[in-house]
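Work Package 4 report. The design task specified in the project plan requires that, given a folded chain encoded as structure tokens, an amino acid be chosen for each position. We show below one input record used in the internal validation round.
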């Protein structure tokens, strides 16, 4: 079972300029909830119990949004990319050390019953 997941959270959100001047894109509210929480909810439904989130732009906003470094009682470990942003692959490398089972992007949402699954290391077919 997948128990920890790395969620990409360091993007600059340049295409959402006016919305991301004061907060990182994953914290932009959608239906009164930070965008990243939709990914958390999906992952919790799949059995994830721990999150690792990389941060960069307006990283301090995460502490305000999640003052207990937790969501719905599940711990969130924030890893800051500094001094420069590492881009997607660098961010994944930063989080992958401890969340080898799943990686999620905060802004690619799916309302479906397909939980994340491990892949067999010997093939590209899901196990």
């Amino acid at each position: 079972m997948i128990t920890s997941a790395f969620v990409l959270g360091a993007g600059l959100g340049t295409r959402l300029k006016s919305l991301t001047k004061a907060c990182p894109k994953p914290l932009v509210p959608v239906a009164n909830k930070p965008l990243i929480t939709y990914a958390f909810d999906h992952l919790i439904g799949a059995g994830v119990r721990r999150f690792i989130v990389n941060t960069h732009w307006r990283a301090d906003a995460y502490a305000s949004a999640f003052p207990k470094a937790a969501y719905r009682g599940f711990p969130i470990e924030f890893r800051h990319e500094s001094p420069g942003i590492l881009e997607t692959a660098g961010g994944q490398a930063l989080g992958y050390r401890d969340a080898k089972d799943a990686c999620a992007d905060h802004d690619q949402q799916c309302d479906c019953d397909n939980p994340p699954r491990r892949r067999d290391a010997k093939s590209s077919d899901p196990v």
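The first helix runs from residue 35 to 45. Validation will be extended to a larger panel in the next phase.
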